[in-house]
Amino acid sequence: xxxxxxxxxxxxxxxxxxxxxxxxxxxxxxxxxxxxxxxxxxxxxxxxxxxxxxxxxxxxxxxxxxxxxxxxxxxxxxxxxxxxxxxxxxxxxxxxxxxxxxxxxxxxxxxxxxxxxxxxxxxxxxxxxxxxxxxxxxxxxxxxxxxxxxxxxxxxxxxxxxxxxxxxxxxxxxxxxxxxxxxxxxxxxxxxxxxxxxxxxxxxxx
Length: 206
What we know:
Elements: H1 2-22, E1 29-39, E2 46-47, E3 52-56, E4 59-69, E5 74-81, E6 84-90, E7 93-101, E8 104-109, E9 119-137, E10 144-146, E11 149-161, E12 166-175, E13 178-183, E14 186-192, E15 196-205
Antiparallel strand pairs: 1-4, 1-15, 2-3, 3-6, 4-5, 5-8, 6-7, 7-9, 8-9, 9-11, 10-13, 11-12, 12-15, 13-14
């Protein structure tokens, strides 16, 4: 009887310790890594007083985040990525292109934080800064410039926990990105990109 009781206590202690390690919560530092697709909205406006309808095409690339949980249910996360490249159609023709970096900081809530649930959904709101580079346009003697952008951001995601360190991750952001366009230094209008960014990959807790 004594041996049985001791064995039961050892197993119970081990399971409790394992559950406590599995539970995500305050003090966790984590990173999420994956492949992201940036899908701009369908109507991106027009330029040069309506002379050109603008269609910004999708872009794909490697993305990652770094986050910190300061309580069981609240945390912050920064999104970073390699530059995303987008073709830009003007009146249906691929005449322009650009690259952009979209660092995004969100304040997050984890409704199941601090529990032993292997499914950990989260949501966030925050701010996005977008830096454009390598703008190009296929028009003679033309120089295209897109101004950097600040805007709001919203986020939804979920971690599917594998063990105390690793998880599968799926996440999505909505980014408010509007950029003023200039041709040879003269303003020609605003491009409304406003993409949804979808990322799938893995999460690692340090």
